Amino acid sequence: MIVYIFIFLAKILEVSLMTIRTVLITRGEKIYGSIIGFVEVFIWLYLINKVLVGISDDPIRMVIYALGFACGNYLGSIIEEKLALGLLTVSVIVSEKDGNKLAEALRGENVGVTKITAEGINENKNILMVHAKRRRKNEIVKIIEKTHVRSVISINDTKTIYGGYGIRK
Fold it and tell me: Domain spans of the chain?
């Protein structure tokens, strides 16, 4: 029973590390990603030895390994969400008359905003562009929602930003 628990927990840890490593590398954090990769492979090599030795006598190990993999993906995703590493771009489309109100509300909360004039089907619009750290995403959306301005919000991950207001690497 202890072997099953060990396999399950070790696989959860290994896959969670894999998720975080992948995110770090795609966001340009190569050194941290490499260090985590070393630990991840070390765990995997040890773990695969525990699973493969005697697998024909105890096939339950495969099931436990697969369950650990599934749970590791889930837990790794949650951890990555909580860490909120990286940058994002928030684009907000609002009517021209509400553009200044929303831009000022965001700027009042120390959020850098670029306002662009745009053309909608029935009226002129403003597009507000915000570049921020991912951990500020919910805060920025709440600021927008608190203004009760009708808007379309689009949020995209951004790999690199050079310059700008309020973002330091």
Answer: 2-83, 87-158
For residues 169 and 159, what is the distance between their CA atoms, to the nearest angstrom? 12
Buried/exposed code over 36-67 (b: 16+ C-beta within 10 A; e: otherwise): bbeebeebbeebeeebeeeeeeeeebeebbee
151 token code pair? 């808007």
Can you give the pTM of this predicted structure? 0.71
- At 93-105, the pLDDT tens digits run 999 999 999 999 9
What does each C-alpha distance from 98 to 84, 121, 122, 123, 144 come to in angstroms? 30, 17, 15, 12, 11
Task: Report H helices in 27-159.
Answer: 30-52, 60-83, 96-108, 137-146
Question: Is CATH 3.40.1440.10 the classification given to domain 87-158?
Answer: no
CA distance 168 to 164: 9
150 and 95 Cβ atoms separated by less than 8 Å: yes
Residue pair 136/114 in contact by the 8 Å Cβ criterion: no
